[in-house]
Amino acid sequence: MDAHKIEALKLEAERIALERFGATSLPEIESILAVLSYEQTLLQKHGKRQPAAYTWRMLEKHGIVSGVERVVTREAETQGYRALVGLGLQNFAFEAVVVRHPDIFSPEAVEHSASRLRDFEDTLTSRYKFWWVNHKQTHLDEYSGGYIWAPKTKKNGNSNEGYLNLTKAKVGDRIISYANGVIKSIGVVTHGHVDAPIPKTHWEAAEYWGSSGWQVSVEWMPLMTPLRPKHFLDQIAPLLPEKYSPIQKNGDGNQGIYLASISQDLGNLILSLVCEVDPTAVQTVNEVEIEGENALQEQILRSSDIPETEKQQLVRSRIGQGIFRMRVAQQEKRCRLTGVDNLAFLVASHIKPWRDSDNEERLSGSNGLLLSPHVDKLFDRGWISFSDDGRVLISAQAKSVAQAWGLVGTSNVGAFDPVQRTFLKYHREKIFKGA
Questions:
Q1: What is the Cα–Cα distance from 262 to 10, expressed in whole angstroms?
Q2: Which of 39, 89, 287, 403 is the one with CA 20 to 30 A from 323?
Q3: What distance in Å separates the CA atoms of residue 383 and residue 393, rounded to the nearest whole number?
Q4: Cα–Cα distance between 393 and 405 in angstroms, integer?
């Protein structure tokens, strides 16, 4: 949204705050601006103006400050934040207003808002989310079947957050498997949720469940040495979500929650602890993520919004072929590390991975390098990267391999152009395993 529109919304917020609520303080005006900003997302979505009727009623019934507090402290997350991000208005969300003015709002509202903003930021900036599944009775069946399953409702018709979370899990998300007091496996989502009847293997545990449910496909990597969270409570407890926590503060599982969303910080902590006892499991999980691209490919092929010729080019670009390879070859003439310039022996490798790119980025020649196959392997997995000015960056774990493959003699491969640098920045921040 342009600056003129934002300025107009601010003036409108001042007018409404004064005329409808008799309010003149900055936090109250910003709260009204948050509602007006959200209404802009509704306008863009539906093509016509729609009032945020529920929110206006809350403010009018309880007053601006109290009404905002009621919204940010309710269990269901506010829908506005994600929509506001799309218009560049995330700083105008209720949660952002509350955090900016902690002296005006209650400590509970400030804590809820700060926590929710952290969760939003994790979701929006990371390539995948972390989930924690409690499946004491069903974990062996779900391991062998390669899935997680939950009913849509209980027998009495009630649902809960742990069931609904299956509909939010996306391809590439990590799942921490907890059963019998220990973390036994790490999973990667390979296909999003589908409607599915209760599996026969779950019948014995289903006396309280409805018969229809959701199923999410998961590639499980069992741990050779299970991890007991109780042994690391001093590190884990401060990172547990305030609501819908998968385990209690004493380390016992919370069986009332089947699938819980956990933060990037907690997920990364669990992976680091797992890595200490079973380093190959974490590496294998990262390899499985690549297989999740199959679901993205299926989505492209099923899309009715993409011309058939473009679908084929997008699919071929996944393996470095087609128009993507041609465009890369127009910019890159050789492997920057080995110097090989025979195209028959080079791989067109995406800088920002195919799975993380939009369709335009998947076909962009600036989002690619021509690499020798062994260099491509290291670059694709994040063992090496490059600085904008061409310095070779090698992860500490991969230095011995790079040396054995003769790749440590070149310290600089030449600078990259401005567009390539934007993709390299993503690679260094999201893919590279070095400092």
A1: 35
A2: 287
A3: 8
A4: 15
Query: Tell me, what amino acid is at 365?
Result: G
DSSP E strands in 109-265: the ranges are: 130-134, 147-151, 174-179, 182-197, 212-227, 259-262
The secondary structure of 310-355 as a DSSP string is HHHHHHHHHTT-HHHHHHHHHH--S-TTT----GGG-EEEESS-GG
Contact in structure between 363 and 352 (CB atoms under 8 Å) = no
Residues in the chain: 435
pLDDT at 140: 85
pLDDT digits (tens, 9 = 90+) for 180-230: 999 998 988 878 888 888 887 776 656 667 678 899 988 888 888 899 999
Within 8 A by CB and 6+ apart from 231, the residues are none
HEC string of 14-62 equals: HHHHHHHHCCCCHHHHHHHHHHHHHHHHHHHHHCCCCCCHHHHHHHHHH
Contact by Cβ (8 Å): 336, 347: no
- Number of CB atoms found within 10 A of residue 357's CB: 20
pLDDT reported for residue 272: 81
Say if residues 97 and 114 touch (Cβ distance below 8 Å). Answer: no
CA atoms within 13 A on the CB side of 29: 12
Tell me, letter by letter, the H, E, C secondary structure of 102-167: CCCCCHHHHHHHHHHHHHHHHHHHCCCCEEEEECCCCHHHHHHHCEEEEECCECCCCCCHHHHHHH
Residues of the chain with pLDDT under 50: 290-291
One-letter identity of residue 80: G
pLDDT number for residue 435: 59
Token code pair at residue 44: 């863009």
Question: Which candidate, 149, 196, 188, 183, places its Cα nearest to that of 273?
Answer: 183
Two structure tokens written together for 121: 């930021």
Q: What is the number of H-type helices and E-type strands within the chain?
A: 19, 10
- What one-character DSSP code corresponds to residue 369? E
Residue 411: φ, ψ to 5°:
-95, -20
* C-alpha atoms less than 13 angstroms from C-alpha of 350 in its C-beta half-sphere: 26
Q: What is the structure's pLDDT at 76?
A: 54
> Tokens standing for 66?
């109290």
Q: Which residues are within 8 A (CB) of 271 and not within 5 positions of it... i.e. 6 or more apart?
A: 174, 186, 282, 285
